[in-house]
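Let us work through a complete example step by step.
Step 1: write down the sequence.
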Amino acid sequence: MKKKIITSAIAVLLMFTLCSCNSAPASYKDGVYEGKSGVYQTGEGTEDVGSGYGVIKITVKDNEITACEFNTYEEDGTLKDDSYGMKDGKIANQDFYNKAQKAVKACNEYAKSLIETNDPEMVDAISGATINNTEFKEAAYDALEKAKAAN
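Step 2: predict the structure and record it as tokens.
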């Protein structure tokens, strides 16, 4: 009998938890929205670690994210592209360059994943590009807040 009561109590608690988590989905106004993350800064003396921020542009149509573009930038506004990780236009540290380029390529993967999931929390971090993932989510939430506010 005691087991039955405990099992019932757990079932009721679980139902309550599930119901309270399923709040109404956000409503977004159709349009193109841009969001920006805060600036990530490295610690002192870590020259082989990047810093900067992310910018996302999302397109919302019928309450769904239909397009997404995400890029990261150096603190001075320079786009992190094929030259990210180089010094004076040359690869000074191959390992750092490879890691930097992995992070650049992850930007497209994060954007594709957001279109598929329509939820920044469901966009998994890619090993070697976790800072980009944090910047991505922060920028995505910023853009989605603008889409909600426009509604």
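Step 3: interpret the result. Residues 1-23 have pLDDT under 50 and may be disordered.
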